[in-house]
Amino acid sequence: MKIYLELFLMFFKIGLFTFGGGYAMLPLIEEEVTARGFMSLEELVSFIAVSESTPGPFAVNIATYVGSHVSGLAGAACATLGVVLPSFIVILIVARAYERFRRSRLVEGALSGLRPGVVGLLAAAALSIAKNVFFPNGFVFSAKTAAALAIFALILYLALKKTHPIKLICLSAALGLIFMYALEALGCTA
Amino acid sequence: MFQQAGRPVGAACAVYGIKMNKKLDLFLTFLKIGAFTFGGGYAMVPLIKHEAADKKGWISENDMLDIVAIAESTPGPIAVNSATFVGHRVAGVTGSALATLGVVLPSFVVIALLGYALDRVSAYKAVRYAFFGVRAGVLALIAKALVSMYKKCPKTGLKRVFARKNEKAAGERENAFFGENAESAGAGRAETANSDAADKTSGTGTGRGALWYVLGCLPYLLMLFSFLMMVLGAVSSPLTLLACAIVGILSQCLACKGAVRGQKRGAR
Fold it and tell me: Inter-chain contact B40–A51, Cβ cutoff 8 Å?
């Protein structure tokens, strides 16, 4: 029973503090989920790819996954309810007076502070993910690091040219297979 | 007599029937939206517009713009925000609950099923190899999201903040900066009075110079602040965001005060 409440509260907090949707919630998830040992950073990054290639918002996907990972279907339901509830309640309140909300100086001021704050947090999360992707076992430059860098550079180039994310994920999976089997054949895998 | 008695009942039934259908329709429409948008977030906006505005006529196109603006400024995923909003418009609280349930259900079912498969499948070497590439790809997607979020972030531009050699030009820029803030705050002023005020203040000295520098750099300072807090792990990210919001509110108050003071000084 306690684990359900923990899941619910954890994702309630994540839902409440995500402004901007999508990857904006990544820093919070990284902090909460990996710190409690529900998921490793590596698993989390892999799951982002799964979430990009399945329907629905990232927030709901990750809540469902972590919930079911930790304590089955009931856990998944608790986590999803937790992540959805804050925005549901806030929108119900805002929908009643949304003209006033939109012109509110208070909201505008808060957002002018929140937007840069979210960018900073996401940059920090990206940095720790980059460390995990490029240098999983300490700062040793191996053939694997070079392969990861090559994939990263190519995908970033294509992403900035607005290629669809699902295509990019399929391409990066294929590249991963090719590079890793090639490295294995050359005998450079650690 | 019989007919008269029957009519209101029939009318009530018809109204009730339409309402029930509308709620079911709401649920099914958002179920469809939830099932067919991959990646979530902004990918959903065109589909919601197509279904809710163009096909069903539940909301107008202007409403859709408002919804996106509101979804950006409230917590939570955009899909859930807009489903709740549209549902509320169409059929009150019940409607918003049904629309939200509809948009969430597909991804819940898919992930709940896939979760088990994922855990089994990750034991294979080929899958691990593929995910090695995928992680690098996801990092690239995050980097791209970071770039676009940075671009969308309202900034004054450091060049504009520090380029104050040309007093007149600086005055105009300053005017633009404070003018924007004051206007968005609903303190609409005449354009001519505005530029007069700015000309006079920039001519009389550096009365609000320090304030100008601080406010101009604020977005960058906040980015640096939250970045450092997260890297150092000193403060949890909700607290960091709260601090950012408070600083943002304070800066807004300061900017408005500065603009009002400048206006008064210009009038003198």
Answer: yes
Q: Among B176, B212, B209, which residue's Cα sits nearest to residue B195?
A: B176
Q: What angle do CA A143, A148, A153 make, to 5 degrees?
A: 125
Compute how many other C-beta atoms are within 10 angstroms of the C-beta atom of residue B82. Answer: 28
φ/ψ (deg, to 5) at B172? -65, -40
Alpha-carbon gap, residue B119 to A47, rounded angstroms: 11
User: What is the token pair recorded at A134?
Assistant: 């490029």
Nearest to B132 among A91, A126, A180 (CB): A180
A 10 A CB-CB count for B106 gives 21
* Selected residue of A32, A87, A93, A170 to mutate for chain B interface (largest B Cβ count, 10 A): A87
**Which residue does chain A place closest to B219, by CA atoms?**
A116
- The verdict on a CB contact (< 8 Å) between B114 and A155 is no
Nearest CB partner across the interface for B131, out of A46, A106, A159: A46
Cα separations (Å) of A102 from A97, B3, B66, B122, B179? Answer: 9, 50, 9, 47, 19
Torsion region of A55: left, alpha or beta (phi above 0 gives left; psi -120 to 50 gives alpha)? beta
A55 pairs with which residues across the strands?
Answer: B38
ipTM of the complex: 0.85
B31/B176 Cα distance (integer angstroms):
46
Q: What is the residue type of B57?
A: G
pLDDT 10s digits, B48-106: 888 888 888 888 887 887 787 788 778 888 888 888 988 988 888 999 999 999 999 99
Kindly identify which residue of chain A lies nearest to residue B103, measuring between CA atoms.
A56
Q: Measured between beta carbons, which residues in chain A are less than 8 angstroms from residue B244?
A: 113-114, 116-117
| Any A CB within 8 A of B152 CB | yes
Residue B93's alpha-carbon distances to B56, B97, B106, B203, in angstroms, are 19, 6, 21, 57
Are B108 and A64 an interchain contact pair (Cβ–Cβ within 8 Å)? yes
Nearest Cα of chain A lies from the Cα of B123 at a distance, in angstroms, of: 13
